[in-house]
Specification:
This protein is of the alpha/beta class and 441 residues long. It folds into two domains: 271 residues, 3-Layer(aba) Sandwich (Rossmann fold), CATH 3.40.50.2000; 155 residues, Rossmann fold (3-Layer(aba) Sandwich), CATH 3.40.50.2000. 36% of the residues lie in helices and 12% in strands. The strands form two sheets. The chain has a seven-stranded parallel β-sheet with strand order 3-2-1-4-5-6-7, sandwiched between helices. The protein has a six-stranded parallel β-sheet with strand order 10-9-8-11-12-13, sandwiched between helices. It is globular and about 65 Å long.
C-alpha cells in the first residue's frame, strides 16, 4: 500500500470532502497524512485522520474569509485584496511547509485541493506525481461552456448569445494574469517554468471532479485525465452541530431548508427568507452559521426554526426544498437527495453553481438584490409545487446514486500511486467514472 499526503485549503467546503476521500484511502489500506491549518485539526482527529500543520499566521484565515463574505463583482477586482486573493495569501510560506512535509513523510504521491496553489508547486519541486481534487464547480475552460467565473448563463448550441462568451471571457483572462504573477514569483524562486491560468488549472496526472455528466455542462471534449466521480461526502466527518428538534418537522407540512454556508454573510437573505415564510403553509429551517446570533431572530413566526448549525446531511432527508448560496457541497448534497433548490450566489464559484442548477432545470437562480421577501416566497412556492424542478433534480439524483465518489477517488489515487504516471480514460470509459471502471484504465 502507498503513503499519500493530502493538502487542503482551510475551509469547510474543502475540508469535508477531502475527509471523505482520506477515510476511503485509509480503508483501502493506504497510509494517510493531511496538511491544513490547525483550526481544522480537531475535526480531522475526530474523523480518525492524522493532521499536519500548514503555517497560516494567526488571524489570517478569519481575515481571508472576510474577503469572501463580501459580494463579488467586477469592481472588487481593482481592490488590493479581491475575494479570491484568499487562495494566494502566504503562498511562499505554504509551499515551503508542504515541501518540508513531503521530505519528512516521503509520500508516493500528493493529493491536493485544486485551490491550494502551494500543492502543485511543492509537488513539482519534489518531483512528485500529484492528483487534484476540485472542491468547487468544475473550472475547466472550454469553448462550449460559459467563461468560468463570470456568472454567465449556459445556452444551448446555436443560440446566438453563445457568440458573446469569448468577449465575456476577456475579463477572466485579466484576473488569471493577476494571480499568475503571484504563482510565478514562487515558481521562479524554485527554478520551475512559468505557467498560465494557474488559478483554474487541474493536475496533468489525475483531476477529480465531484459531479456527473448529467449535471455538468455538456462538453465536446474533456481532458483524458479528468474524471467525474460523483458526489464526495460522508456523514462521519467530525463536525459538531446543535441539538436538533426532529419532532418539529413531523406535522405533514413541507419544509424548506435555508443555508448560506459557513462563509457568506447571509443576514439580509435570512431576514428576507423569514419574512417570506410568515403565514405560509410550509415550514422553514434556517441555519445561520456559528457567527450568527439566534436571538436576533426572536421574532420568527412559529413555522420558522432558527439554529446556528444543523446536521445538514440528515436534515436533507426530511425537507422538500433548499435555499442556498450555491456552495458546491450544499448543492451536491441537495441534489443527491433529489431536492429542487433556489441558489442565491454571493462570490467565488457560487455563480457557477447557480448557472448549472438553472441549466439543469433543477432550480431557480436569484441574484442577492432580487431575493426580496415577495420574490423569495414566489420562488419557494414554485420549486415546491411545480413538478418540473423536482423531476430535473431526480434525474441528477439518479446519476449520483450510481457513483461512490469517495471510493472511486481512493481507487484512482491508489492507481496513480502505483503507476506514478498520468491516469487517463480509455475510449470505452465514460467521463463519469464509477468504481468498477477504475480496473479498465
Amino acid at each position: 500500500m502507498a503513503k499519500i499526503l493530502l493538502s487542503v485549503l482551510p475551509a469547510s467546503g474543502h475540508v469535508n470532502p477531502m475527509i471523505a476521500i482520506a477515510q476511503a484511502l485509509q480503508r483501502e489500506g493506504h497510509q494517510i497524512q493531511i496538511a491544513t491549518d490547525v483550526s481544522y485539526h480537531p475535526q480531522l482527529q475526530r474523523a480518525g485522520l492524522t493532521p499536519l500543520i500548514m503555517p497560516y499566521p494567526e488571524g489570517a484565515i478569519a481575515q481571508a474569509l472576510e474577503y469572501l463574505r463580501r459580494p463579488a463583482g467586477w469592481l472588487s477586482q481593482v481592490k488590493r485584496h479581491p475575494p479570491q486573493s484568499y487562495f494566494f495569501m502566504h503562498l511562499a510560506e505554504l509551499v515551503a511547509a508542504l515541501v518540508k512535509h513531503i521530505e519528512t513523510f516521503q509520500p508516493d504521491i500528493l493529493l491536493t485541493d485544486l485551490n491550494l496553489y502551494a500543492g502543485p508547486i511543492a509537488a513539482e519541486v519534489c518531483r512528485l506525481p500529484y492528483a487534484s481534487y476540485c472542491a468547487i464547480v468544475n473550472t475547466l475552460v472550454s469553448p462550449d461552456a460559459p467563461p468560468y467565473g463570470m456568472g454567465i448563463d449556459w445556452y444551448p448550441e446555436n443560440d446566438v448569445r453563445r457568440w458573446l462568451w469569448p468577449f465575456y471571457g476577456l475579463g477572466m483572462k485579466a484576473v488569471l494574469a493577476r494571480y499568475d504573477r503571484i504563482v510565478n514569483r514562487v515558481r521562479k524562486h524554485y527554478g520551475l517554468p512559468l505557467v498560465h491560468g494557474a488559478m483554474l488549472a487541474h493536475s496533468p496526472y489525475l483531476a477529480l471532479i465531484p459531479t456527473t455528466d448529467v449535471y455538468e455542462y455538456p462538453r465536446r471534449a474533456v481532458p483524458p485525465q479528468m474524471m467525474y466521480i460523483g458526489p464526495v461526502t460522508t456523514s462521519e466527518r467530525g463536525e459538531v452541530h446543535d441539538d436538533f428538534d426532529w419532532a418539529w418537522l413531523d406535522d405533514g407540512r413541507p419544509t424548506v431548508y435555508v443555508s448560506m454556508g459557513t462563509i457568506v454573510d447571509g443576514k439580509d437573505i435570512f431576514r428576507n427568507a423569514l419574512e417570506a415564510a410568515r403565514a405560509a403553509d410550509w415550514k422553514m429551517v434556517m441555519a445561520i452559521g456559528w457567527e450568527g446570533d439566534v436571538q436576533k431572530y426572536a421574532d420568527a413566526p412559529p413555522n420558522v426554526l432558527v439554529r446556528n448549525f444543523v446536521p445538514q446531511l440528515a436534515l436533507l432527508g426530511k425537507v422538500q426544498a433548499v435555499v442556498s448560496h450555491g456552495g458546491n457541497n450544499t448543492v451536491t448534497e441537495t441534489l443527491l437527495r433529489g431536492l429542487p433548490l433556489i441558489v442565491i450566489p454571493n462570490s467565488a464559484d457560487q455563480p457557477e453553481s447557480a448557472g448549472r442548477v438553472k441549466a439543469s432545470g433543477a432550480g431557480i437562480r436569484m441574484r442577492p438584490r432580487e431575493a426580496t421577501p415577495r420574490r423569495l416566497r414566489h420562488a419557494i412556492e414554485a420549486i415546491l409545487n411545480e413538478p418540473s424542478y423536482r423531476a430535473a433534480a431526480h434525474r441528477i439524483q439518479a446519476s449520483y446514486q450510481g457513483c461512490d465518489g469517495p471510493l472511486t477517488a481512493a481507487r484512482l489515487v491508489g492507481l496513480l500511486a502505483e503507476r506514478r504516471r498520468p491516469i487517463c480514460r480509455t475510449e470505452e470509459v465514460s467521463v463519469t467514472i464509477r468504481v468498477e471502471d477504475v480496473a479498465r484504465l
